[in-house]
Amino acid sequence: MSLQLPLFAVLVRGPSMVPTLRDGDALLVRRGGRVRPGDVVVARFRSRPDLLVVKRAVEARDQGWWVHGDNEFVADDSRAFGVADVIGRVVFRYWPRPGWLS
């Protein structure tokens, strides 16, 4: 039996969510729950299930989500990898600049 807590932590790696999030930001994520367009989420692309990403939910599509990064100069999102399955919604950045994201 495995226990899945409703909250988990992730560390941002890379520039795809600048200026909202930066490399090294530590985030608290709520597993499951309702996702709305505009939410910052943690997801896995169906075409790249080994890759865990932090992106912004754009629209529900094909029983998943179309997600984009906030950095217009980095396109490692649904434009490159297609639909993503959302694991959870980012609710709080706790390091290095604490703040609520939703």
TrEMBL record:
Molecular-function GO term, any one: serine-type endopeptidase activity
Keywords, in A-Z order: Hydrolase, Membrane, Protease
Keyword Transmembrane part of the UniProt annotation: no
Record GO cellular component, one term: endomembrane system
InterPro entries registered for this protein in UniProt: LexA/Signal_pep-like_sf, Mito_IMP1_subunit, Peptidase_S24_S26A/B/C, Peptidase_S26
GO biological process terms on file: signal peptide processing
Domain Peptidase S24/S26A/S26B/S26C: 6-91
Predominant place of localization: membrane
Gene3D superfamilies per the UniProt record, alphabetical: Umud Fragment, subunit A
Compartment list: Endomembrane system
Pfam assignment, any one: Peptidase_S24
Protein name: Nickel-type superoxide dismutase maturation protease
Source organism phylogeny: Bacteria, Bacillati, Actinomycetota, Actinomycetes, Micromonosporales
